[in-house]
Amino acid sequence: xxxxxxxxxxxxxxxxxxxxxxxxxxxxxxxxxxxxxxxxxxxxxxxxxxxxxxxxxxxxxxxxxxxxxxxxxxxxxxxxxxxxxxxxxxxxxxxxxxxxxxxxxxxxxxxxxxxxxxxxxxxxxxxxxxxxxxxxxxxxxxxxxxxxxxxxxxxxxxxxxxxxxxxxxxxxxxxxxxxxxxxxxxxxxxxxxxxxxxxxxxxxxxxxxxxxxxxxxxxxxxxxxxxxxxxxxxxxxxxxxxxxxxxxxxxxxxxxxxxxxxxxxxxxxxxxxxxxxxxxxxxxxxxxxxxxxxxxxxxxxxxxxxxxxxxxxxxxxxxxxxxxxxxxxxxxxxxxxxxxxxxxxxxxxxxxxxxxxxxxxxxxxxxxxxxxxxxxxxxxxxxxxxxxxxxxxxxxxxxxxxxxxxxxxxxxxxxxxxxxxxxxxxxxxxxxxxxxxxxxxxxxxxxxx
Length: 449
What we know:
Elements: H1 3-12, H2 21-40, H3 45-55, H4 67-79, H5 83-107, H6 112-124, H7 126-131, H8 138-154, H9 161-173, H10 182-191, H11 194-200, H12 204-225, H13 229-235, H14 246-258, H15 264-281, H16 287-304, H17 318-332, H18 336-361, H19 380-394, E1 398-401, H20 404-413, E2 420-422, H21 437-440, E3 444-447
Parallel strand pairs: 1-2, 1-3
Helix pairs in contact: 2-5, 2-18, 3-4, 3-20, 4-5, 5-6, 5-8, 6-17, 6-18, 8-9, 9-12, 10-16, 15-17, 19-20
């Protein structure tokens, strides 16, 4: 065989990650687009706040575990202290999740067409498209949650994969506390079948839990040393205050929208069919996905009876739901209406998110400032220069704000040459150094939007 023929053979049968060439090319194109979005779209307030965390790396913070801060620091070391640097690992993580999802489907015994569709449909989820360029705790949470499911399926190849599953679950816990629901889900998956119950009599699942707990203990220890501040903030939300159905309706409507209204019917139908088949036969190829989705989904439903559920909270469930939707499509698309939905789901999701990202990146596309929420990202460098000029003119030694977002955004402009402090919620900043005493003995300039 000639060298040219060998190259053609390699191209026809790509060896990277076992994924088909077209899928890899699509993911590469999406990743390039998201890297451009990450570079040109200004920080959101939360991202600017997490950037402050990365300046003082710790094992926990007021709002969340530390993984987002660690990712920001690594990205900054590679690409600099700018939006692209902060977001770099989050963008790459979305591509890794897609490949893991493809391989997970194949390892569960699903066909290549379904596996490819699951990976593509994950990227067609609207909230994934809108948020995959941002560095927020959901980015590492989705990666490590999916990696845990992948490792659990790999345990059929060797019991040592239980330790890998424990490690990725522990890293998920260091990303976001919602990963605590992985444990009950895995227990349901094992306890529901004779083979699973047999595996519970071996030390491997328990060693996996020990590994996860040992990694999570880093954040537990930090909380113990800081008056359990992030536990109080996050777990305090679970306490019921009043009962209402409005938030439940909002949860269902918003999730049906942000998941992708063309994909949601497949996920709903697939969940029902998997549950029915599981009850009937005692097992199902996607039982692991359903079992690890159920506890967190149930909690969110219960939570909605007394408080609102933010749109991005279910994000770790989206890879599994995309896989369920892709499996359901194989069952349903014999009918014309389902076939049409399946054909348009990915183009709709990817095109809609591409238009949104272009709008976020191009200020000239803004419309009706009072209605266009993206305008809240604009103009911060100029605003920072104006604040700095006013501070210098008045002789103020520091800048004060009334929200963490304003303080973080002013700091991120790097235009203000004095300490920027949120004068409320000072407990958020236990990680930060105290401002210079000389600056704090002078008057401050309070800025409010």
